[in-house]
Amino acid sequence: MNPDQIETAFQRLREREPEPTTELTYKTPFELLIAVILSAQATDVSVNQATEKLYPIANTPQAIIDLGVNDLKSYIKSIGLFNTKAENIIKTCRMLMDLHNGQVPERRESLEALPGVGRKTANVILNTAFGHSTIAVDTHIFRVSNRTGIAPGKNVIEVEKRLVDRVPRKYQRRAHHWLILLGRYTCIARNPKCEQCLISDICPSAFQLKAVSTTKSRNPKTAKKRSGSRLKSASNSNQRGQSGPTKKNTAKR
Ligand code: SF4
């Protein structure tokens, strides 16, 4: 996309959702930090289900240290990699107490020094908890940036740098969430919904990515079964795509 098209794309994304934010439920920077650590390779919904039980019991570094690793695991055991995540969260809480007065630091280097916190998580915290114009590149943003040509790149760092270079400053603070929402609900990995996409007239990949095989199986019975489940799944996705993020998910900002 050229600069005018990038401007148009973000104008439209802003018109549709003027103030997008994370779908993770949180009230404080610390709650957001723990939720983002838990969300690696897990859905926001599963994280929210765990934290809605955990946070009334423990939502500060000291409270989580007091809870202990085993009790912490019992709250997050439905989330993938919960053993490692629990260990990292306890270590992170100790560092927050020892080095940062129990507060979440507002500096990238300090955030990235915490166990379980990498560049992407630090970017999310800086952006969402502290209002910095950082852009965390996750799988959705990586895909959307490449498909649209807004910021093509071979790896997440390349894409992040191009986004920072190419997204107009006035959109940078919200760019992360607009691109995630576009990738999560419309520009999905398989069979993107170009027909519903508000930038299909300026996207170079529009209607080019529909080549998911419908003839993998030569067995008509199996093929029919597969086709049925694909349609069902597409229909579920469509419902999400049309409604966008749920009110419940966006209620706490
Ligand atoms: S037009 Fe299609 S490929 Fe392009 S961003 Fe929209 S959904 Fe993705």
Number of helices: 13
What general outline do the C-alpha atoms trace? elongated
Report the count of strand segments.
0
- Assigned CATH class: Mainly Alpha
At CATH level 3, the topology is Endonuclease III, domain 1
**Fraction of helical residues:** 55-70%
> What fraction of residues sit in β-strands?
under 5%
The CATH architecture can be given as Orthogonal Bundle
Query: How would a textbook summarize the main sheet?
Result: none
**Tally of domains:** 1
Query: What Rg, in angstroms, do the CA atoms define?
Result: 20 Å
Distance between the termini: 31 Å
Element string (H = helix, E = strand): HHHHHHHHHHHHH
Sheet/helix structural class: mainly alpha
> What is the fourth-level CATH superfamily?
Hypothetical protein, domain 2
Mean pLDDT: 85
Q: List ligands, each type once.
A: iron/sulfur cluster
Low-confidence stretches: 212-253
List the helices and strands and how they pair.
Elements (H helix, E strand, L loop, with lengths): L2 H14 L12 H10 L5 H11 L6 H7 L1 H8 L5 H19 L7 H5 L6 H11 L9 H10 L7 H11 L2 H17 L34 H24 L3 H5 L2
Helix pairs in contact: 1-11, 2-8, 4-6, 5-6, 9-11
Bound molecules: iron/sulfur cluster.
The site of iron/sulfur cluster (SF4) has 14 residues, from helix 9.
Description:
This protein has one domain (1-253): Hypothetical protein, domain 2 (Endonuclease III, domain 1, Orthogonal Bundle), CATH 1.10.340. Helix 1 (3-16) crosses helix 11, helix 4 (61-67) packs across helix 6 and helix 5 (69-76) crosses helix 6 (82-100). The chain has 13 helices and no strands. It is mostly helical. Helix content is 60%, strand content 0%. The radius of gyration is 20 Å and the shape is elongated. Iron/sulfur cluster is lined by residues 147-148, 186-187, 192-194, 197, 199-200, 203, 205-206, 209.
